[in-house]
């Protein structure tokens, strides 16, 4: 027969056990939450082009400051090939945990996937934008000073012998390719496109005389212009650049309304935790507002583009539509 005097003591023991279990569960939950704080280890940013190009020029100072802001290392990994689609595809297929990101560009997100349906990723569906990074104007340069010392000479040669003048690019669908395609379309010119595996080798061949022209981002063209290795013909800005005060705008050189730039963004695989995306986006916007970053990039001809995640998404959709039309109108075949 059960002793009724034991009931209160048994109840007390059960309550103590329950309290201990709850405390342990709470401690475990707290520890788990603390352990899951993002980022808790190094972040890798894949740059899908060779080292030494415009992508590196923009990525390194911004990502270094982002690492300082996050209190974690940010490692750049160059994975070039196939006009940037190899590295981009790797990130699209990566685990969406926020530790593998992509330095996106107009070419790899708004152009190349429309030229090649076998890229292995959907730029509008397989990524979530962290935010905008930067934009940079382009300058048309040549290594053949005697033959093409000014823009009118280029037009004259192109009209005399259609399809013989050559222009290089960092690969099919990259900014150099598409901006020249857009330019030739608008001017009624026909030139031969010579794609390379990155902007640096294209510039090397321009200097060596293997190709005639290159529509190069100002940031990476500057050292070669200042060193006298290439001749700048026109810059795609509404006004002359203080970095190149002697170089006319396209309008001043006789081509009105030609203003183009290439842009860069930080992207994550689709499915990344929304709170972590917001954290990164907010930090990135702060970094891009830093006067030191603005000055450092500005001295290289680069403008910061501090678009938060949602704004960058809308911008990407707009650019995707724009370059899709250029591809169609210029009759650029699938690659």
TrEMBL record:
One Pfam family per UniProt: TctC
Entry-linked SUPFAM superfamilies: Periplasmic binding protein-like II (SSF53850)
Signal peptide start-end: 1-36
Residue ranges of coiled coil: none
UniProt keyword annotations, A-Z: Signal
Membrane-spanning residues: none
InterPro entries hit by this protein: BUG, Bug_dom1, TAT_signal
Family (UniProt): Belongs to the UPF0065 (bug) family.
Official protein name in the record: Tricarboxylate transport protein TctC
UniProt organism field: Orrella dioscoreae
Taxonomic classification: Bacteria, Pseudomonadati, Pseudomonadota, Betaproteobacteria, Burkholderiales
């Amino acid at each position: 027969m059960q002793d009724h005097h034991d009931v209160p003591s048994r109840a007390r023991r059960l309550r103590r056990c329950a309290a201990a279990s709850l405390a342990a569960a709470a401690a475990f939950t707290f520890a788990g939450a603390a352990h899951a704080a993002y980022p808790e280890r190094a972040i890798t940013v894949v740059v899908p082009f060779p080292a030494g190009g415009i992508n590196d020029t923009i990525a390194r100072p911004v990502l270094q400051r982002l690492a300082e802001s996050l209190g974690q290392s940010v490692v750049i990994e160059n994975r070039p090939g196939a006009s940037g689609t190899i590295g981009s595809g790797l990130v699209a297929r990566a685990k969406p945990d926020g530790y593998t990101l992509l330095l996106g560009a107009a070419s790899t997100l708004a152009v190349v996937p429309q030229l090649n349906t076998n890229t292995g990723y959907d730029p509008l569906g397989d990524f979530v934008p962290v935010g905008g990074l930067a934009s940079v104007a382009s300058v048309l340069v040549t290594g053949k000073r005697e033959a093409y010392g000014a823009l009118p000479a280029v037009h004259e040669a192109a009209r005399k012998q259609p399809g013989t003048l050559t222009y290089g690019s960092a690969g099919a669908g990259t900014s150099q390719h598409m901006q020249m395609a857009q330019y030739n379309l608008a001017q009624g010119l026909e030139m031969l496109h010579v794609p390379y595996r990155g902007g640096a080798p294209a510039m090397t061949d321009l200097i060596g005389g293997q190709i005639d022209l290159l529509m190069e981002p100002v940031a990476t063209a500057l050292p070669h212009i200042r060193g006298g290795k290439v001749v700048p013909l026109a810059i795609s800005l509404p006004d002359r650049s203080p970095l190149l005060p002697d170089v006319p705008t396209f309008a001043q050189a006789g081509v009105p309304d030609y203003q183009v730039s290439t842009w860069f963004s930080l992207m994550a695989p689709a499915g990344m935790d929304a709170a972590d995306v917001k954290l990164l986006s907010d930090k990135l916007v702060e970094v891009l507002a830093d006067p030191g970053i603005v000055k450092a990039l500005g001295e290289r001809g680069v403008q910061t583009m501090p678009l938060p995640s949602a704004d960058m998404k809308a911008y990407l959709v707009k650019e995707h539509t724009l370059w899709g039309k250029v591809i169609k109108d210029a009759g650029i075949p699938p690659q």
